[in-house]
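$ ./design --mode recover --in tokens.txt
reading tokens...
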């Protein structure tokens, strides 16, 4: 990616719509193929023919080659912000279809979400909603269903999926990530480990352990990988709950990383990390269940698995590397690593914004929790900054970011709200010159002039007037 695009990615707005995230997913898939040596035109036609599944998991979408080229140009010129859909004014659902048919579409889709538009029209004729000779254009019906936000995506067929094998030539071009559930300790407590693997060198980059596979656990592991090894180009994930979250896509967009989600049900595209999971189970994970001296604490397990990853797996010969160890292959690669200028700038890329309405008593709500904001924002819409790594909320107040805290109702009931103190007069400020003072001085001015009536002294010394 050119340096100009990198700057545009960082300067774009932090709030991205679902459509912009999907367009970024399509652009990432095209640029990933180009990075692997495929021609741009071939990559565009391949992705337009087999587009990636949206983050919502509702099946594939139909794309035109022209749309993919248009999104690529917008991304290269304006970064992720250029992928935001244009804001259109309000429009009606349909001027060509009767309201009774629109209500029928909505009711039928609520009962059968996979019913096609021709099937809906056939049902409408059978039930008398449409006359036997009444003509309805299928395109108009499809557009009306789309404007009604009814589900229109079909489940992709097995033969339509892309099962190409791939291998990148240099380190930190693609990183694979996957979660593996296991049990640990005497109680056989259920835990999940997220492993990060370099595609070219098979180096185990990092591992994090948690109680459930979610976006916070994945983002923490991603941040630690970036701190230790620097930025990379492509992130390949499966359809786990922590990977299809909007926070994951938003973080990748802010970091300038192309996000690729593997097709559900086809481990062939994710074979390297699946083979690593088998190795991890055989060498370390299967020996953690039911052992009394092994703690089921996530931090202790993360330390144990990290030791295995860096001291054992990365230092043993790998069959796919012609007998070289992943660590030796990684260190022999001449591709330079790219790090963030500072930790503060790296953490700032894990920040997104959301628009929230402030209530009359200076409260904003986020995920069912009420947060109290400083006075002066009641009844307005403000931008709330959310830190993905810590899930903290901040707002911009009087030129600086202020951390929001949950409302303490009991404390608010017994304490008075602080009021700003009136500014005190400074010693050299004095009393203000009021209109009454000006009128008095005009009517009752002094008899003598400010010099007391004495003549001004001569400029020449020794000369008497």
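writing sequence...
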């Amino acid at each position: 990616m050119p340096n100009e695009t990198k700057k545009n990615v960082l300067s774009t707005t932090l709030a991205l719509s679902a459509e912009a995230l999907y367009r970024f997913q399509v652009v990432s898939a095209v640029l990933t193929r180009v990075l692997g040596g495929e021609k741009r035109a071939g990559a565009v036609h391949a992705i337009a023919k087999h587009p990636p599944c949206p983050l919502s998991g509702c099946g594939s979408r139909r794309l035109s080659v022209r749309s993919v080229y248009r999104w690529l140009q917008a991304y290269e010129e304006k970064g992720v912000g250029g992928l935001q859909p244009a804001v259109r004014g309000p429009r009606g659902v349909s001027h060509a279809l009767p309201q009774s048919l629109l209500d029928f579409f909505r009711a039928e889709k609520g009962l059968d979400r996979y019913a096609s538009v021709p099937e809906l029209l056939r049902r409408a004729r059978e039930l008398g909603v449409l006359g036997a000779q009444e003509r309805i254009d299928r395109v108009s019906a499809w557009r009306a269903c789309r404007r009604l936000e009814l589900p229109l995506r079909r489940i992709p067929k097995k033969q339509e999926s892309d099962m190409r094998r791939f291998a990148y030539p240099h380190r930190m071009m693609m990183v694979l990530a996957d979660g593996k559930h296991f049990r640990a300790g005497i109680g056989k407590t259920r835990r999940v480990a997220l492993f990060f693997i370099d595609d070219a060198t098979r180096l185990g980059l990092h591992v994090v352990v948690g109680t459930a596979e979610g976006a916070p656990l994945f983002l923490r592991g991603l941040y630690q990988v970036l701190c230790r090894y620097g930025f990379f180009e492509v992130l390949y994930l499966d359809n786990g709950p922590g990977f299809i979250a909007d926070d994951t896509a938003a973080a990748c967009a802010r970091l300038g990383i192309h996000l690729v989600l593997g097709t559900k049900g086809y481990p062939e595209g994710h074979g390297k990390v699946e083979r690593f999971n088998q190795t991890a189970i055989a060498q370390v994970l299967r020996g953690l269940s039911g052992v009394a001296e092994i703690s089921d604490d996530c931090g202790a397990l993360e330390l144990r698995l990290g030791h295995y990853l860096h001291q054992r797996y990365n230092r043993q010969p790998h069959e796919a590397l012609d007998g070289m160890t992943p660590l030796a292959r990684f260190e022999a690669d001449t591709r330079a690593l790219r790090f963030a200028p500072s930790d503060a700038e790296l953490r700032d890329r894990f920040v997104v914004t959301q628009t929230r309405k402030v209530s009359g008593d200076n409260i904003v709500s986020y995920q069912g929790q009420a947060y109290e904001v400083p006075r002066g924002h009641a009844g307005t819409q403000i931008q709330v900054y959310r830190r993905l790594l810590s899930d903290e909320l901040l707002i911009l107040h009087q030129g600086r970011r202020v951390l929001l805290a949950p409302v303490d109702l009991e404390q608010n009931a017994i304490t008075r709200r602080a009021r700003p103190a009136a500014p005190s007069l400074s010693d050299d400020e004095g009393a203000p010159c009021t209109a009454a003072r000006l009128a008095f001085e005009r009517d009752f001015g002094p008899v003598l002039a400010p010099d007391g009536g004495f003549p001004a002294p001569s400029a020449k010394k020794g000369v008497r007037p």
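exit 0
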